[in-house]
Amino acid sequence: MSSPVAKRLSTLGSLLHGVYEYNVLRRFRRVPLRQLVIDVTYRCNSRCVMCSIWSAEPQPELTLAQFATLLADPLFRGVERLMLSGGEPTLRPDLVELVEACFECMPSLFSLSLITNGLAPDRVISLYGDIARRCAERGIRLSISVSLDGVGEIHDRMRNIPNAFAKVEQTLEGLGQLRKKYGFYLGVGCVVCHLTLPHLQTLADWCLQRDVDLGYQLVGFHDTYVNNIAQQSVLDFTEDDRPALHALLQRLASGRSLRNPMASYWADMLHMYAKGRPRQSPCAFLVDSLVLDAAGNIRVCETAANIGNCLESGSCSKLYFSEKASAMRSAMKSGACLNCNSGCMVNIAWRKDLFKYLGFLMRGG
Ligand code: SF4
Ligand code: SF4
């Protein structure tokens, strides 16, 4: 199944199966787990203004053997998309072995997403090069996103690290070389906030010159995970930011079509920010996704509270299918999700939630 045609057929099959699960199966029972985010470590070598993970007390983290034991749970056999997050994932010295453990426990896996802050170029290029080779050998689609919030000094300021931009530039250069060899997707992810908004066009031009996609994430404020409520006064959009913010959202929302679900998400965000309309975009976290963190905790989405610990409960399946998890998803759907600006699971959810998406497109967003 490694020829391009076979891969396309397999992706189409998975998509159709997803449409069935979102529109039929889910009415009767909990859909099997299809997307998994693993926060492989909470250690971080950055000091970002929009996140306090780097300043938190170090916690004991699961060893490779403990991760392997948890991942042997049958729950993970249906996982199709895996995202490794953190902290900074490359700070785990056994990251490659952890990826191999995931490959072993997830026979349905066809897509792996990696992120990095790119602040340790040699380590990132070496580790991600190794993983890229393994993905290519197994026919697993790989995407790598490097955090970059602006060109030059603004990035150093956002990350609170001297020469952060120069380091990221070096990382992208090295990953660009690897991309030629292994053919993975390489993108840049930036945080859109009061501080970065005036610099985003320069960043977009910079990425275009280097043939690197630029993904945007609107700043969000949470007392969990990134724990950044204290930074809201510095980072949140002001009244004066509105024209530039709306113009950006309008640009991102253009070209809405069946093949471009993210444009619909941006149209939704434009309505949310300009008119105060509650979020309409679906989110795969509410249906068939989960977060497993470096301590073995399970969350229904990155910003949700822990619903339990897999090591302590002895089973990740039990937690995923638990009444507590269902109750939390329902409460979020009619609560936190209505004001959530996260786009990280939208692309997947819009495609599977096809009928809702068609309705959204027909109403003009
Ligand atoms: S946003 Fe990412 S890179 Fe920055 S401190 Fe948090 S975990 Fe580290
Ligand atoms: S919409 Fe936001 S708050 Fe709701 S599940 Fe998705 S990421 Fe979490």
Topology (elements, then pairings):
Layout: H1 4-23, E1 35-39, H2 64-71, E2 81-85, H3 95-105, E3 111-116, H4 121-138, E4 141-147, H5 153-159, H6 164-182, E5 185-192, H7 200-209, E6 213-218, H8 232-235, H9 242-253, H10 261-275, E7 289-292, E8 297-299, E9 308-309, H11 310-313, H12 316-320, H13 323-333, H14 346-352, H15 354-362
Parallel strand pairs: 1-2, 1-7, 2-3, 3-4, 4-5, 5-6
Antiparallel strand pairs: 7-8, 8-9
Helix pairs in contact: 2-3, 3-4, 4-6, 9-10, 14-15
The structure holds iron/sulfur cluster (2 copies).
Key traits:
single chain; binds iron/sulfur cluster; alpha/beta; 365 residues; 9-stranded mixed β-sheet; TIM Barrel
- Largest sheet at a glance? 9 strands, mixed
How many domains? 1
Distinct ligand kinds: iron/sulfur cluster
Which parts are unreliable, with pLDDT below 50 for 5 consecutive residues or more? none
CATH topology annotation: TIM Barrel
Describe the protein's architecture and organization.
- The protein is of the alpha/beta class.
- It has one domain: Aldolase class I (TIM Barrel, Alpha-Beta Barrel), CATH 3.20.20.70.
- Helix content is 44%, strand content 13%.
- The protein contains 15 helices and 9 strands.
- It has helices at residues 4-23, 64-71, 95-105, 121-138, 153-159, 164-182, 200-209, 232-235, 242-253, 261-275, 310-313, 316-320, 323-333, 346-352, 354-362; strands at residues 35-39, 81-85, 111-116, 141-147, 185-192, 213-218, 289-292, 297-299, 308-309.
- Strands 6-5-4-3-2-1-7-8-9 form a 9-stranded mixed beta sheet.
- A hairpin with a 4-residue loop joins strand 7 (289-292) and strand 8.
- The chain is globular and about 50 Å long.
- One iron/sulfur cluster binds at residues 283, 285-286, 301, 303, 332, 336-337, 340, 342, 345.
